[in-house]
Amino acid sequence: MMRLVSVVRALVRGGIDLLLPRVCASCKKPLQTPDRSQHVCRDCWSRIKKHRPPFCPGCGRSLEQDTLAADACSRCAQTSGQIDRAWSPCEYEGVIQTLIHEFKYKHKEYLAPLLARLMADCLTERAVALSGIDVIVPIPLHPAKLREREFNQSETLARLIAAQLEIPLVPGILVRKRNTRTQTELTPRQRVENLREAFGVTAPAGINGKTLLLVDDVLTTGATVSEAARALKKAGAAAVFALTIAS
Ligand SMILES: [Zn+2]
Ligand SMILES: [Zn+2]
Fold first, then answer.
1. How far is the CA of 159 from the centre of ligand 1 (A)?
2. Most exposed: 18, 70, 90, 208, by fewest CB within 10 Å?
3. What distance in angstroms lies between residue 109's CA and the mean position of ligand 1's atoms?
């Protein structure tokens, strides 16, 4: 009987193994068995660049030597961001940039747990007071874009982070009123213009006086999270923080 159980167990494990991709999601080289469940080879994993303290409160990046005395990095000093504090574990380059691209545009949703864990661990490692965060809100996609991409990457991440940190998730409270142009080709100033009045809040009572944590995949200029925070604060949110994988 025991033997049968272990045979079945081995078959199930083998079946699960067959379903998992056999190559690293970043460099595409074959994965060793212990790395299979995490989808990234050891070499790529060790090359992910993490931001180092002290951090800029506006974007989560490391403060450069020349801005150590200031309270924000040179990029954030020029903008009037609406985010009270931003955290991001990684620099947006190399391996992590590839992983985010594969996750977001190539339907590799199996990368979500790994990316979400990096984000949630970033808050616990930095001793962020989680009891001070009332709800987690994902950055929404416009319905037209959601149909095209079939899933909202920010909501997938937010759901996993909410479960790990045991903070309630409120998807659907923040919506896109306009289908904005893709931001990648735009200058920082154009991004702000592009996003003006792009977000709306469906049920202000649900966030009134609360402290919110916005979740998005990447923070570049910060225009998206800032514009979302503006709408949430207008609707009564007391404070808005942001968490992204990379910045
Ligand atoms: Zn690799
Ligand atoms: Zn900054």
1. 26
2. 18
3. 17
